[in-house]
Prior knowledge:
There is one protein chain. The protein has about 500 residues and is α+β, with helices and mostly antiparallel strands. Helices cover about 35% and strands about 25% of the residues. It has helices at about 25-40, 100-115, 120-125, 130-145, 155-160, 170-185, 205-220, 260-270, 295, 335-360, 415-430, 470-485; strands at about 15, 50-55, 55-65, 70-75, 80, 90, 165, 190-195, 200, 235-250, 280-285, 310-320, 320-330, 370, 395-400, 405-410, 435-440, 450-455, 460-465. It has a five-stranded antiparallel sheet, sandwiched between helices. A five-stranded antiparallel sheet has the order 9-8-13-12-10, sandwiched between helices. A five-stranded antiparallel sheet has the order 16-15-19-18-17, with helices on both faces.
Amino acid sequence: MMIFFNFQELGKVLYYYPSNTDINTQLKRVGLCEAIIRFSENFNCDIPCEALHTQKSRYVFYQPEPDYWFTLVLSVPSVIRLTSDGIEVVDYYDDQVQNNVFQAVLLKLYRKFSLKHDKLETMYKYHGIEALKEALKKSIEMNLKRINTNQSGIAEIFYGLQFLPVDRHMFLKVQCFINQLLLTFPQIKQLLLLQGEKLIWTGIGQSDIQVLYDYLLKELLYQHFLPGADKQSTFGFIIKKRSHVSLLDTTSVSSNNGENSDTIDRDQNGGAGSEDGETSLDSFFTASPSSISPSRRESKVNFDQRCRKRFHLLIYKAEQSYMVMFLHETDEMDPMFMIKLDSFLSLNFCSLAKLLSKEHVDTPSTSQYSGFTNSIMGLASSFQTLPLESIPPNVKFLYFNNLNLAVKMTPGSQSDLPSYKMLADLKHDLGNITENGEIVVKMVTEPCPWIVGKISNGREFYAIFNSKASNITDIDEELKKLTDAHLNNIFFQD
């Protein structure tokens, strides 16, 4: 993994993995990627280069900010076989490395860095190139350990949220408590409420809540969700971190496009609609502002120019509920403030947490509301918890709502890896459909499953049917039964 930035040639490299790679090899790799990117601009300077396919390697590119490039170089899985003449031949399986999956991986790496630090250009401008290199090294090396390139698939693309369904009465109780908390303590700028690993309420923008939710569950609160962990006895503040996270300032927007444009519209206008061989990983980030052509600088590719602000992080636990609060770094967490906040939460939040714990145990799948968020964002959802135990063992499915980022996946969906990887290909093909559509395929490899991809009204549904004796008519009937039983309150246009 490598990063280039400064005007001197060696200074361009901000980070490279593996770190023991010699400098000459690093420079050759980066030079090749810069040449590919520039060459692609001759054909379309408005859309950045996304990937390069070679027989043995795949280069995947992602440009998060002007003049900065994240690049993954992956070796294509291969198998050596003997021909009838006894000659060794290498077969490469290019289709097992999917561009959309690894572009999503790069996006996630960038978002996690931005959450803990800031934008790359801001870090360079205010803290210098050495601080930027050190921050990237710490952040990227931590997250690279969690990437399994052979198992990566559609889950990396969706990067969704798990919501807890609540009934209308609990909905109002939570909303009233949130309003009272924010009015009593105006220093609290943002917050979110978790019940165990599931999200109940948040007013944070979609582009931040995805990575923040992932960070809370997999890093900060990871120990709390391990099997055998005491989930009940701890009460009070469990985490206090000063100037810990960086969130988008939704009050200042100078341009919007690409990945963040929909998020900006939602934040401002309040509308919700409005991979037999091992795959090796090599990646680097590059930036070379002095050598970028004028056509790049005048490109129509815009980037999110909103400012990011630093926030203190407070997490208060009661029962199995977690109240995560964010205070601007200019606000002091003085002892008197903390005493008053603790008193307020122990009186009001603890009683609410008991009700949430009781409802979560007593009525896990009969509620009407799920994943509701700040009404300003307009992300209320009627997505129900799916009774997974009633799903036939030969059926796996995944549901994703692009409007509120709700995701639901049956356990064991990755057990049949070829079928699971096919879902990302269907996702790519469905991306060419503007509104509603459906794709049905039958794989020829054992166990010859049928795979269905369906998109409608911003919602996506994918199903794997391990039933080789079926025909397309049977699969259509099974699909209708599945959606009627588990997604009967979701409208799919035929």
